[in-house]
Each structure stands twice: as C-alpha cells, then as structure tokens.
Specification:
Elements (H helix, E strand, L loop, with lengths): L1 H33 L64 E6 L2 E8 L2 E9 L4 E7 L2 E8 L2 E8 L4 E6 L1
C-alpha cells in the first residue's frame, strides 16, 4: 500500500511540474490571442519605410464635426466645456471581428477577419524594412522587404486565414 501511495505522489508531482512548464510556455501566446479586447477600426494602408514618420491614415467611418470653443460673456470666467455622454438607442452589439496579428522577421502585420473578408489594420516594418501592400478580390498581400529579401504576409478572405512566405 505504501508503495502505491509513493508512486501516486511521484506521479502527481511530475504532472504538476509538467503542467506548470507547459503553462509558462503558452501563457504569452494565449494572452496575445484571446485577451486582446480592443476593437480596432480597419483603415487604408500605404507603403512606408520604418525610418519615416508615422502616417495618419483615414478611417472609413465619418468624423464628428468640431464643437465650438467656450464663449465668454464680459465679466464672467471662462468655463471649459464638459463632455456629457451621448445616449443612443440600445442596439445589439455588432459581431466582433477577430484581429489576427502576424509577427515576422521584417515587422508586424494586423488583419481583421470577418464575413465580408480580410481588412488590413496595420503593417509595421522594423528598422530597414519597407511595407508594400497589394490587394485583389479575395486576398491582401503585405510584403515586408529589405533589399532583395523579405516576407510576404497573405490574408485569404474565403478561407478566413493568413499565411506567410519568406523569399
């Protein structure tokens, strides 16, 4: 009986160590893939080099008109405007589009995958690399290039997946 308990204790200890090692190996990946709860609006991409200043890209959503600045009556102090929440009718939340981030040697590319297909969110090259974007019906290709070498990152709409190609 003692021998069986000893084997059971050794087995439990080895299992606990194996689970701990596995957890520390995958927790960063799981956190990056499943805990990211920030909605990112897709925008049009442009080719930029890593050493250039960041570009401000336009979003397809309409922008609100600017509000007038504070007015001042003679003899009264200026009050800064406070933002009150704007209430809108309650709608069911739109289905969330999963954000797929692909990290490669030349940088990082982010896509959203939804029923209408792939949309490029961002292409961020590392120093010395340039991002080039090509689009066609059903797919988007982002090349992160340095000289003659680079990585092609593809998003294929009808398969709802991404793929990479080193050259």
């Amino acid at each position: 009986m003692r021998r069986a308990l000893r084997y059971a204790a050794i087995w439990c200890g080895a299992t606990a160590v194996a689970v701990s090692v596995s957890w520390f190996g995958v927790r960063g990946v799981l956190r990056d893939e499943f805990v990211d709860d920030v909605d990112v609006e897709p925008f049009a991409a442009q080719t930029i080099a890593a050493d250039e200043a960041p570009l401000t890209l336009t979003s397809p959503s309409p922008t609100p008109s600017p509000t007038p600045g504070p007015s001042r009556a003679p003899g009264k102090p200026v009050k800064s405007p406070t933002k009150s929440p704007v209430k809108s009718p309650v709608k069911s939340p739109a289905p969330r589009k999963p954000l797929k981030v692909v990290k490669v040697k030349g940088g990082e590319v982010a896509f959203t995958l939804g029923p209408e297909g792939c949309r490029l969110v961002s292409a961020t090259p590392v120093s010395g690399y340039t991002a080039k974007v090509a689009r066609a019906t059903g797919w988007i290709r982002v090349d992160l290039v340095k000289g003659e070498h680079g990585t092609g990152v593809f998003c294929i709409s009808h398969e709802q997946r991404t793929d990479t190609w080193e050259y």
